[in-house]
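User: I'm preparing a small set of examples for a lab meeting where we compare how different chains pack in three dimensions. I only have the primary sequence for this one, and I'd like the structure in token form so I can line it up with the others. Please keep the answer compact; I'll paste it straight into my notes.
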Amino acid sequence: MGKLAPVYSTENAVGIVIGTGNLGRKLTSNDEPKNLYISRDGGLTWRSVRPGSYIYEIGDHGSIIVIAKKNEPVTEIEFSWDEGLTWTSLTVSEVPIYVSNIIIEPENVSQ
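Assistant: Understood. Below is the structure token output for the 111-residue chain.
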């Protein structure tokens, strides 16, 4: 599976934290199945939102979160307007591509 994306938050989206991990009493190796988790309360509670390993970015003070499968070719990315409660797919390519990074404009405050 390779290196996992780190636990991530941004000072512009207070309380939102995203991370890849496993559910259980102890950590498992990177080769074991993982899920994408989101916390909306600064890490106090976590919710599994997608099975698998993802890369992610938080934009516009947390009003949009963008995710893409990590280390596998995709034709779509997903985004959420409600802090990860619901997700919408967006086709970005007709042929499968590897998404290696998601970048936002940090000074931009519009969606």
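A couple of notes for your slides: The chain has a mean pLDDT of 84. The beta strands are 17-21, 35-39, 47-51, 54-59, 64-69, 76-80, 88-91.

User: Perfect, thanks.
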